[in-house]
């Protein structure tokens, strides 16, 4: 079976068992502070498990793109080294939301694996949860008994909390699970060592393929477990691993999921991919180049998937948070590409078209944006390649320095050293590389530590890991402290926690608090309140959260400082709690602010449509911010938007404003219908089956949007673009204002023109008048320069006449009055041309600051050893200053003008 057929067989199997097939959620997670990237198929159903949202269907199945590179599930360091952990992988899953439970889940997983896929039963092992006394959890005998119907008892194994109790993160839904493992070792090995002893033992031929989780609990902040409102099934099967066992391979990379990519990389690098290359043995020997090449090809073939899908789903590489995680993965891949496979020019980005083609029809998000994704990766690659070579050079230099000292260091007396016995029993000594240096390479140049260790080892050195780990730990602590949020548990006031959003229709609603909790971050304490009914819009889709007030019957007013979404909840942020939280309250949105926000949001839709007209249909939204002050719109476009284009865009938007187009708001349109009617949907946004469509003129702007909008475009008032800039490779940003802000902006500009006019004495044509002014200014400058030159020409003869003959030297020490340092320098050079055997010191005061200039004839520098630089430094002491220059000409500045005469006097001492 091909990978494609295997995927389809899974979906067909569960569809036939009454499951609705749903699309994958984006890999980038929004609205969940506990998670950066989707790490399991269940993430998109978290609210349903927690009882915070109703299930649309009792049974669903899908293939979900997952990323395990941060947080609780992080496999990054394994990827490429082993053959079955990926950064991005597809998780095939089936779910029951309070519908079927353990029996059906187990029956069906067995049926699918052994009857549809026809996997040999004697190679399969299953596990169940053995219980955990500390958590008060019992052994899962129900699962054990269900498996006994199908599986021989020596293939059913108990598992501990680590392997058989699945948790999404530090908090959240969890429950006991049952894993299915596959043993793909050859028969003779299987006869010798039972597969049962290798399950969950990191053996690369006895691997977990499927996990069936029985969701029953919610882990809360204090660590305790609470039963969920209903019992659910959540399963996840690694697609790439399944393909590997079905295609009879010993590595995921040998399947048709990866082979095309691997062969492309191999061919372009002029090397061959050796799937069976072995890692360097422990101890000495260095890495084999075969192995290094194979790891590099696997890393590249894997990482391109993670990076491409993250970018396609809206997460660009950046210098912090999720963007930084992506940048790091990209750098890891490029490092291998450059150093191991020898691609000195940007190559990694060239994998994008192949990948896009491969996922066409599965995850089309990539195919439709492939040019953009490739461009972003290419730009990152170019800038990283520059730093990378610097890192490698640094490493080599460090090694050179250490080598020079090796004879001294690599001796048994030196306790800093590290030694090991070779197989032949010879003691070999290694010199340690400073752990802080290794950390710098890791942190600044993206060198994974295992690589630095490997490079070190190849040259007979060892990294001081203790120091490295300490530096790493310190950095982690620093970044954790910067983002640490301490979230308390909810205090629940009402058990029915369904939430109604009324903000599309009103800005004031009567409501009750359902639950609240305390959160502290960076030393600041706040409260989060959830209401049963609320007009407050929670930040999302770029539109900021509403602010306003909660008014209580006793007259108490609680200010809402922000509103955010968390999973399915609308969370109101306040600085304090009401005295009677259970009372009915009136929730009132700051309506003036909301009006401004709505003007900016609707203007953003008009802008988006106008840009597609002016710049082209490749323009896609890559991020937006809409608040009460302005709007910011990031979009894919490859060149600067010109002034003419900006003028055209503004003109279209303002035309639409004047047309006063009424808002058409459809709250519940079938997603498929909306898309086929041509609405603009955003990449990386997760849409449900029913969507809200915002239309301003059927032929102009139609977008899927959850935000709030003006009733008619006339309310926007006036639209003005105030800035255009670049944010990242292939992404540009427009900032604009509307309504009152636009009016104020125009007023300010007008005021400026008015002030200018007054300053210029009300000319008819301001621009012309400024031009004349500039011309006149230039002319005057030139005249001044000329007159200064004339003045210094007169001075030079005066000065020459004042020369005193001392010991065959023409000595001049004088004060001169000139307006700038250039003129003084000029004068000094002219006198030098005029007077032989010259030793001259000039004292000046320019803008109140004392200065000294020393000029010495070239022959005197040689013959008498007079050095202007040294002399000026000596003289400058008299004016509390310093300076320097060349042996024949030097200058100094100082603070004390009263010392100038003394300095001139002192000068005589050098020749007398
Ligand atoms: P392992 O112990 O092998 O890391 P896991 O216990 O982390 O697996 P689960 O969290 O139970 O795995 O995920 C469900 C399934 O997803 C696994 O059975 C496996 O087939 C697959 N899977 C998990 N992590 C990865 C990964 N990094 N790459 C590819 N497939 C994975
Ligand atoms: Mg794992």
What this model shows, in words?
- The chain is α+β, with helices and mostly antiparallel strands and 912 residues long.
- The chain has 5 domains: 1-249, Bira Bifunctional Protein, Domain 2 (BirA Bifunctional Protein, domain 2, 2-Layer Sandwich), CATH 3.30.930; 375-483, no CATH class; 486-589, Beta Barrel (Elongation Factor Tu (Ef-tu), domain 3); 594-755, Threonyl-tRNA Synthetase, Chain A, domain 2 (2-Layer Sandwich), CATH 3.30.980; 787-910, Diaminopimelate Epimerase, Chain A, domain 1 (Roll).
- 38% of the residues lie in helices and 25% in strands.
- It is built from 25 helices and 38 strands.
- Strands 1, 2, 5, 6, 7, 8, 9, 10 and 11 form a 9-stranded mixed beta sheet that branches. Strands 15, 16, 18, 19, 20, 22, 23, 24 and 25 form a 9-stranded antiparallel beta sheet that branches. It has a 6-stranded mixed beta sheet with strand order 33-34-35-36-38-37, with helices on both faces.
- Helix 8 (259-269) crosses helix 9 (289-312).
- The protein is globular, with a radius of gyration of 37 Å.
- The relative contact order is 0.05.
- Adenosine-5'-triphosphate is lined by residues 68, 75, 85-86, 89, 91, 208-211, 236-238, 240-241.
- InterPro entries: aa-tRNA-synth_II/BPL/LPL, Ala-tRNA-lgiase_IIc, Ala-tRNA-ligase_IIc_anticod-bd, Ala-tRNA-synth_IIc_core, Ala-tRNA-synth_IIc_N, Ala-tRNA_ligase, Ala_tRNA_ligase_euk/bac, DHHA1_dom.
- Its cofactor is Zn(2+).
- It is found in: Cytoplasm.
- Zn(2+) binds at residues 601, 605, 705, 709.
């Amino acid at each position: 079976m091909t990978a494609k057929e295997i995927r389809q067989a899974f979906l067909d199997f569960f569809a036939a068992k009454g499951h609705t097939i749903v699309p994958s959620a984006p890999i980038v997670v929004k609205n969940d502070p506990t998670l950066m990237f989707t790490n399991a198929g269940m993430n998109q159903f978290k609210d349903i498990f927690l009882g915070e949202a109703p299930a649309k269907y009792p049974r669903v199945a899908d293939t979900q793109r997952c990323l395990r590179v941060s947080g609780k599930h992080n496999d990054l360091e394994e990827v490429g080294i082993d053959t079955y952990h990926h950064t991005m992988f597809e998780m095939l899953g089936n779910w029951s939301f309070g519908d079927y439970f353990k029996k059906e889940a187990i029956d069906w997983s067995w049926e699918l694996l052994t009857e549809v896929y026809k996997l040999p039963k004697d190679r399969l092992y299953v596990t169940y949860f053995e219980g955990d006394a500390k958590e008060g959890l019992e052994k899962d005998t129900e699962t054990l008994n269900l498996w006994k119907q199908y599986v021989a008892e020596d293939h059913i194994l108990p598992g501990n909390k680590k392997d058989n109790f699945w948790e999404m993160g530090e908090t959240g839904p969890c429950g006991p699970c049952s894993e299915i493992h596959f043993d793909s070792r050859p028969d003779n090995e299987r006869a010798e060592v039972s597969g049962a002893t290798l399950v969950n033992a990191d053996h690369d031929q006895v691997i977990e393929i499927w996990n069936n989780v029985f969701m029953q609990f919610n882990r809360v902040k204090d660590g305790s477990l609470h039963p969920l409102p209903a019992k659910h099934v959540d399963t996840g099967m690694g697609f790439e691993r399944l393909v590997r066992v079905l295609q009879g391979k010993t590595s995921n990379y040998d399947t048709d999921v990866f082979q095309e990519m691997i062969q492309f990389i191999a061919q372009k690098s002029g090397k061959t991919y050796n799937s069976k290359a072995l890692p360097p043995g422990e101890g000495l020997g260095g890495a084999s180049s075969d192995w290094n090449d194979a790891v590099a090809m696997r890393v590249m073939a894997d990482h391109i998937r993670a990076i491409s899908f993250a970018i396609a789903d809206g997460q660009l590489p950046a210098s912090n948070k999720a963007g930084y995680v992506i940048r790091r993965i990209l750098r890891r891949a490029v490092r291998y590409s450059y150093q191991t496979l020898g691609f000195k020019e940007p190559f990694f980005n060239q994998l994008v078209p192949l990948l896009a083609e491969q996922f066409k029809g599965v995850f089309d998000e990539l195919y439709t944006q492939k040019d953009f994704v490739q461009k972003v990766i290419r730009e990152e690659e170019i800038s990283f390649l520059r730093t990378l070579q610097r890192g490698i050079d640094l490493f080599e230099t460090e090694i050179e320095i250490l080598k020079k000292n090796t004879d001294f260091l690599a001796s048994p007396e030196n306790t800093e050293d590290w030694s090991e016995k070779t197989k032949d029993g010879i003691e070999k000594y290694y010199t340690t590389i400073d752990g802080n240096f290794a950390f710098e390479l890791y942190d600044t140049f993206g060198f994974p530590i295992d690589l630095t260790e490997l490079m070190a080892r190849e040259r007979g050195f060892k990294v001081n890991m203790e120091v490295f780990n300490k530096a790493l730990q310190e950095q982690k602590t620093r970044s954790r402290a910067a983002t640490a949020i301490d979230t308390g548990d909810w205090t629940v006031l009402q058990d029915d926690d369904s939430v109604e959003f009324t903000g599309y229709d009103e800005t004031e609603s009567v409501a009750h608090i359902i639950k609240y909790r305390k959160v502290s971050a960076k030393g600041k304490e706040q409260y989060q309140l959830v209401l049963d009914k609320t007009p407050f819009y929670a930040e999302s889709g770029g539109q900021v959260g509403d602010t306003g007030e909660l008014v209580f019957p006793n007259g108490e007013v609680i200010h809402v400082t922000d509103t955010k979404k968390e999973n399915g909840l609308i969370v109101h942020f306040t600085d304090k709690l009401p005295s009677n939280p259970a009372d009915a309250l009136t929730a009132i949105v700051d309506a003036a602010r909301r009006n401004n926000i709505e003007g900016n949001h609707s203007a953003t839709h008009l802008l988006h449509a106008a840009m597609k007209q002016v710049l082209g249909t490749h323009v896609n939204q890559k991020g937006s911010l809409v608040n009460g002050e302005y709007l910011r719109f990031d979009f894919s476009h490859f060149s600067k938007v010109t002034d003419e284009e900006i003028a055209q865009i503004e003109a279209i938007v303002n035309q639409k404003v004047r047309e006063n187009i009424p808002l058409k708001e459809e709250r519940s349109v079938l997603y498929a219908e909306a898309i086929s009617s041509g609405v603009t949907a955003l990449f990386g946004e997760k849409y449900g089956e029913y969507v809200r469509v915002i239309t301003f003129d059927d032929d102009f702007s139609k977008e899927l949007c959850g935000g709030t909008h003006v009733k008619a475009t006339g309310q926007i008032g006036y639209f003005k673009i105030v800035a255009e800039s670049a944010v990242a490779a292939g992404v540009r940003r427009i900032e604009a204002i509307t309504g009152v802000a636009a009016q104020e902006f125009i007023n300010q500009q007008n005021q400026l023109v008015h002030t200018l006019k007054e300053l210029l004495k009300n000319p008819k044509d301001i621009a012309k008048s400024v031009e004349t002014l500039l011309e006149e200014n230039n002319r005057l400058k030139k005249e001044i320069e000329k007159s200064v030159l004339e003045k210094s020409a007169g001075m030079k003869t005066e000065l020459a006449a004042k020369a005193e003959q001392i010991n065959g030297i023409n000595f001049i020490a004088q004060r001169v009055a000139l307006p700038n340092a250039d003129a003084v320098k000029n004068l000094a050079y002219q006198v030098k041309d005029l007077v032989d055997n010259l030793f001259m010191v000039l004292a000046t005061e320019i803008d109140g600051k004392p200065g000294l200039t020393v000029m010495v004839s070239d022959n005197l520098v040689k013959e008498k050893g007079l050095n202007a630089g040294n002399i000026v430094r000596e003289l400058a002491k008299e004016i509390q200053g310093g300076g320097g220059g060349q042996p024949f000409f030097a200058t100094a500045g100082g603070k004390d003008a009263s010392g100038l005469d003394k300095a001139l006097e002192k000068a005589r001492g050098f020749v007398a």
